[in-house]
Design brief:
The protein is mainly α and about 100 residues long. The chain has one domain: Metal-sensitive repressor, helix protomer (Methane Monooxygenase Hydroxylase, Chain G, domain 1, Up-down Bundle), CATH 1.20.58.1000. Helices cover about 80% and strands about 0% of the residues. It has helices spanning about 10-35, 40-70, 75-80, 80-95. The longest helix has about 30 residues, at about 40-70.
């Protein structure tokens, strides 16, 4: 399932998501370093994992909002309401 219209993110949203993903990448690398150190407290690792989850959730919200704006809202104009509805229900299963 997918849209032929591609990823339509406003440049500011795209850059925001890219920066957030780079931050997530840094956090994940930090978690990997923490796991290699037997002196690191489990609670500290869990806090970092929570931070990564929060950042990924925010990125997901940005992309979902863009999807709703550029694909879902215009589905009627294209005549593909059923396909978009099925796609949206599939996406929401994972949110």
């Amino acid at each position: 399932m997918g849209c032929d219209n591609g990823l339509r993110l406003d440049p500011g949203v795209r850059e925001n998501a890219r920066r957030r993903l780079l931050s997530v990448k840094g956090h994940v690398e930090g978690i990997l370093r923490m796991l290699a150190d037997e002196k690191v407290y489990c609670g500290d690792v869990l806090k970092q994992i929570k931070a990564v989850n929060g950042a990924l959730d925010k990125i997901g919200q940005l992309v979902l909002q863009s999807h709703l704006k550029h694909h879902v809202v215009t589905a009627h104009e294209r005549g593909d309401e059923d396909r978009i509805l099925d796609e949206l229900m599939e996406i929401l299963k994972y949110r």
